[in-house]
Design goal:
The chain is α/β, with parallel strands linked by helices. The chain is built from five helices and seven strands, in the order E-H-E-H-E-E-E-H-E-H-E-H. The protein has a single domain, classed as Rossmann fold (3-Layer(aba) Sandwich). Helix 1 runs parallel beside helix 5. The protein starts with a strand and ends with a helix. It binds flavin mononucleotide (FMN). Flavin mononucleotide binds next to helix 1, helix 2, strand 4 and strand 6.
């Protein structure tokens, strides 16, 4: 089984998680880069809020070749009740059945959010929530790796 770990990250949490999973799988993480608009800095934070609440599209590029893979482990921040806009753009490019989605967030119910997303876009292979309030990062990463090996 060929795995690709793909991530989008604005402030580093999803990047850190993607790097841990990549290291354990022995692959190089693939970055979803948001080409425009920029969400950097305080103004970028406000803009990200506006874009996520309005489901607005953004322009992305992918750092490496992401095709020709059996399973995508997509790591993304959760923004206003869905994956970040750049991640949504990436998810349009790959079949949901090949995706394990890992959402990082502060305190939202990621199961509910993924169920809502799947009802409109198709079911993922599996999904996980890394929730700051629950301090479950290491536990969830272990669970992801264990389940991928099954
Ligand atoms: C625009 C925006 C919206 C967010 N909305 C939520 C939310 O609805 N629920 C939540 O728990 N965290 C929310 N967050 C927090 C991020 O999901 C969390 O900090 C995430 O781990 C950031 O990932 P990153 O460091 O990879 O960018 C939001 C952050 C931003 C910037």
């Amino acid at each position: 089984m060929k795995y690709s770990v793909v991530f989008f990250s604005r402030t580093g949490n999803s990047k850190r998680v993607a790097e841990k999973i990549s290291k354990a799988l022995g692959v190089k993480p693939i970055e979803i880069i948001q080409e425009s608009p920029s969400f950097k800095g305080l103004f970028g934070y406000l803009k990200a809020g506006y874009y996520s609440m309005r489901n607005k599209s953004v322009k992305i590029k992918i750092s490496e070749n992401y095709k020709d893979t059996d399973r995508y482990i997509v790591v993304s921040p959760l923004w206003a009740g869905k994956p970040a806009n750049a991640t949504v753009e990436f998810l349009k490019l790959v079949p949901p059945g090949k995706v394990t989605l890992v959402l990082t967030c502060i305190g939202s119910d990621t199961d509910k959010i993924v169920n809502d997303y799947e009802s409109k876009n198709g079911k993922f292979k599996s999904h996980y929530g890394i929730v700051k309030k629950l301090k479950n990062e290491e536990k969830v990463i272990d669970e992801i790796l264990k389940n991928l090996q099954k």
